[in-house]
Amino acid sequence: MRKEFLVLALLLGISAPAIAPTVSLESPAIAQATLPIGQWLGGGFEVNIAYFDNALHYHGYDLRNGSSLHLVGATVSGDRSRRLYTWRNGGHRYQVAWQPNDPEVIRLQVFDPNGRQLINTLMDYVLSP
């Protein structure tokens, strides 16, 4: 009986490390398929969206004047066919609309504190994180 237990323990010990990396390798692929993460370009802007520390991170760059902005923690609304991710900075609202069935394009909209639209541009997917 001891031999059988030892053989079983060895087999489980050898197989466990082979199983663990499979789970961690699939996690980014799942996030990529369900979130608009990556680098996006359009309308004179670059937006990088990443998911880490249990939050969506927005890095926006104005390619014309070099200004940048980093926001954390989007609220998610919409439905399965069109998702809306919203970050807030003071009274300004930064929104990214994304359709999972058209994953290579997002719409960036920025609104001032009075609700006036400042930016409304389509952006193309450039790179994954």
Account of the 3D structure:
The chain is built from one helix and nine strands. By secondary structure, it is an alpha+beta fold. A nine-stranded antiparallel beta sheet has the order 4-3-2-1-9-8-7-6-5, with no helix packed on it. A hairpin with a 5-residue loop joins strand 8 and strand 9 (about 115-125). The termini are far apart.
Q: What share of residues are in beta strands?
A: over 45%
Helix and strand composition category: alpha+beta
How many β-strand runs?
A: 9
**Morphology:** globular
Distance between the termini: 51 Å
* Oligomeric organization of the protein chains: single chain
Task: State the helical fraction.
Answer: 25-40%
Biggest sheet descriptor? 9 strands, antiparallel
Strand order of the largest sheet: 4-3-2-1-9-8-7-6-5
Mean pLDDT: 82
| Helix and strand pattern | HEEEEEEEEE
Number of helix segments?
1
Q: Runs with pLDDT <50, length 5+? A: 1-30
Give me the Rg, rounded. 21 Å
Topology:
Layout: H1 2-34, E1 38-42, E2 45-52, E3 55-62, E4 68-72, E5 75-78, E6 83-89, E7 92-98, E8 105-111, E9 117-127
Antiparallel strand pairs: 1-2, 1-9, 2-3, 3-4, 5-6, 6-7, 7-8, 8-9
Short description:
The protein is an alpha+beta fold. It contains one helix and nine strands.
